[in-house]
## 1
Amino acid sequence: MEPVSERARILIADDSRIVRATLAQHIRDRFDVREVADGEAAWQAMLLDSSIRVVLVDLTLPKVDALELIGRARSSKVQRIRELPLVVIAGADEQAECERAVAAGATDFVNTGIKAVELNSRLEVLLKLSATREALAESRAALESSRTVDPDTELLTLPYFDRQVEKLIAYSRRNLADVAIICICVELSLSQSTWEGEIEQRTRAIARSLAATIRLEDLASRSDRHEFCIATQSDGVAGVLHFAARLRKVLENIDAAGAGVEVWTCIGVACLSEDMRLTAEQLRQISQKRAQQAQTTRSRRIVLGAGDGGATEQKVRADEGSMDINLALTLIRSGRTTEVVPHLPRLVHQLRPLMALVRQQKEIALANKETVVHGSLQGVPRPLDQRS
């Protein structure tokens, strides 16, 4: 945020060179001044020059008049332009036009014959108000980012969820454990016509049901308008699948979103053991992508991986790309051999080149040993025949 004392830039937009020169002379000692002669040039300056803090605009500009310029600014997608103070320059007999400009979004209006002291004073007030508004917006953003729980859903905010999952992942790496993120996409089907905001209210009710269902050690957040993510420590794919099925049962209960509402859930799961290098955000994004895949196919499967074809609550299929030798050895050392067993065919296939090399080296070593033994026998004298 630029302090007022650093000579804020004022844009003067007026087709009269005399008016521009007069106003510039009034304020040049305190502010930097930029001048344009038509509305289109003023609009381009507002778009490209982020140092402009206030615009003084003539009511009857050529090309783009003041009302259109104000409309463009107030409907802009750029917050800086949308909140830029716009002061209309008008004659004493243009009171009605000034009121229309204020109704359209003008911040203030001044008379073309305004004195230097009054103009500088009003510009200083506008700049201080802008600085206060910007500071308030920054404080609100900081407060939003530091908030940990969404009061509407009773779930963690998404930034805080990712930070907590990152800690969970770090703990799991140190203790040879696994972390799973379950992403649930929710679709609501209402039997009657809805009132404005009803879908949102019912989705919040589902979120509160989810918050009441998960364990204290689990983490949950609303990751999108109709999407939730749950992080949990995993003791195997079967356990994660059972947990996901239990969550589905709770959320699809008719009381979760209220009477007369049918809830449909699509679920995707991602596990840290698929790639121990994944960050919390990456792991969450994988689970979200898999939940969206389940939603696209409109099936009841729980998608565990890109290559597994999905899974139901009754059957878990091993993800062919989720296990390598290093991870398998780590799981075996920690006593979790049952998680390695489904991947044994693939692991054996990966080890074949190594085993072939081991056999080859054994055969070479054996051949060398036989050569050494055979050579040493040739140099040993044969014992004398005692009978001779």
Note: The longest strand covers residues 178-190.
## 2
Amino acid sequence: MGHVESATRWRDGCTWLNRPWIESPNLNTPDLSPMNVSRHNLLALVSACALTVCVASHVAFAASDNAASNPAVSVSHSAATDAAGGNNAGNDGPAYGPELQGFDYPAPVEQFDFTSQGVALHMAYMDVQPAHANGRTAVLLHGKNFCAATWGPTIRRLSEAGYRVIAPDQIGFCKSSKPEHYQYSFQQLARNTHALLESLGVQRATLIGHSTGGMLAIRYALMYPQDTRQLVLVNPIGLEDWKAKGVPSLSVDQWYERELKTTADSIRRYEQGTYYAGTWRADYEPWVQMLAGMYRGQGKQIVAWNSALLYDMIYTQPVVYEMGELQMPTLLLIGQKDTTAIGKDAAPPEVRARIGHYPELGRLAAQTIPHATLVEFAELGHAPQMQDPQAFHKALLDWLAAAPENR
């Protein structure tokens, strides 16, 4: 029964050009249907994209606790759109490479090179060492529409508290590989993450997962219970089975066609309505541009294709039925105004009405997970670490200091 409270190298944006498989690309425009993209032509597109992003403008973003929680920076949706380029230019903004070349992260980015499913891959990650170590490691797992960079303020606060902080981009996301063919599963992503930690000499860690990263953190903890000191779930999706509740299945091809239509405006509208309870602030905008920039570049097809495969994974691989098997101390940090549910827009009205109710989902999860503590944020949505970082980090750090460890 849960307890309830109120409440291996640096790479910049251009050094990837030195990868040995990019030599003399054919820059002719190929057939970009995902199943017809040849490896030769795909690499040509990636090379052309690199030449563009190395001279592209960089997004200026510096998320801090004070700025993110200061009402003075709040703006209307219209003002946020204007700041991004005007109401008549809904997709204006920087173009980034398919691996987010050109977008800066809050700490040096390194790469873990490995082979999975017969494919050579690289997994981007930040590894931030504290000035005064407490001997513990925190691993931050990002959500579907987020990247490791969005954890910037949390990385800083955990590091100040003595934690070594490792924040990877999962395969298929952000600065990591986006393979043409990959059998995505939460088990596979957990294995990739475990291999990364082993390569860094990390044997046990506290897992902190947000959104889809929460589903991954649950799967990791189930697969590697002895390696998981504590588990923190920040508005995790997967607290319900959307398929069982009537959300219709979409094929990978349907997901792909939807993803190809992604623009800054579509991202902003979705996040404002689903993540932030209808509100918008200027400090959310860099994360819109982060995602939209990959869809403005010449690598948008491979970005969209991997996104489609990942949505299929999320929809078809629920973790809700296994939450009762988690034996480590677990913290649930739940913004009560979150309404996230995968495929919700494709569901009939009567189904939409009964999914994505996070007050209920969080409390049920706290009752199901044996050693759970629930902290609710009444006025926050899907990303409490962004909406009110001061309240979020206080709740997180207080619990980490007081909660026992998994033995």
Note: The longest helix spans residues 300-316.
## 3
Amino acid sequence: MPVPISQAWTVASYVLKQKLKGRKRYPLVLMLEPLYRCNLACAGCGKIQYPAHILKRELSPDECFRAVDECGTPTVAIPGGEPLMHSQIEKIVEGLVARKKYIYLCTNALLLKEKLDLFKPSKYLTFSVHMDGQKEHHDFSVCREGGFELAAAGIREAVKRGFRVTTNTTLFDGADPKSVRAFFDEMMDLGVEGMMLSPGYSYDKAPDQKHFLGRARTRRLFRAILSNRKPSWQFNQSMLFLEFLMGKRDFRCTPWGMPTYSIFGWQKPCYLLQDGYADSFSELMAETEWAKYGTEANPKCANCMVHSGYEATGVDYTFSSLRGLWETAKATLFTKNEDDEALRMLNEPVAPIHSFNPLVQIDSKPTKLEETRA
């Protein structure tokens, strides 16, 4: 099972409590960014293009704990930057485990083998390893040759030592569905408990602005990848969110579902956009003009189908009615999704980005983005 029963029960109980209290807006996962510093410079990343004095800053463990306590979610994701570069990351994790929070420490795993001794295996701690596809594609995506092998070695060692390990994969235009499906086989063979998927978001600061997916292309790509699914593939996320990516559901964004706390404070309105900061979580929830965001309300949201905006929508839908529970159960139990047209799409010729592009250099100027149907 990709998620332990204790974790599933904790999350379900939390969501049901929010429903019983009549809360229409509630957080599901806290995105805790203790630093922006990283040991990679990925072309599609919009998180690390800051001056040196910003990249040197870190949240203290106490600042992290205050944010976690204030937000109150049962699950905390720790992205970055590269969290394993934080000078006190083991203290942050230790404090969150003591609070019985389910932690997804997001890492590129270049330092994972070296840092494993800092941590103890726990049902509350999962290393969520950034893997963007098979070897050649991953190395191109993270702009580092040999990155795949280092990450795979870190996964093997962590699994061997009894740690929970998942993968998180971001897909861009030019991804080869056949290669992605083969990649799923490779990750399951490494022993990960589940995989997380998302299309990339077109960060204004990302150096490569050419290969972000439009909504129509996202649906087509994920339909090809996720239809006719192998039973061995395990996914560590909402099955309804995956159906949304395949074009089977029409969800609206839930920008408050995964609030972000970083060295700048509580980020408005979500993990992906930076439209100012609040001093407290309560201020974030009360003063953010939520109606200004979403696919139809904001051009910056036009092509977004990212998990941080829509996975919470899927979870909320699950617990909003008996129908939602039934549809979630059905999507979880019957995962094959037979689709002859999707099989045909797998045989269409694809020219992966890395076959005709050099590694992207971090010097591109951001361009204005508009909604596309590409």
Note: The chain is about 35% helix and 15% strand.
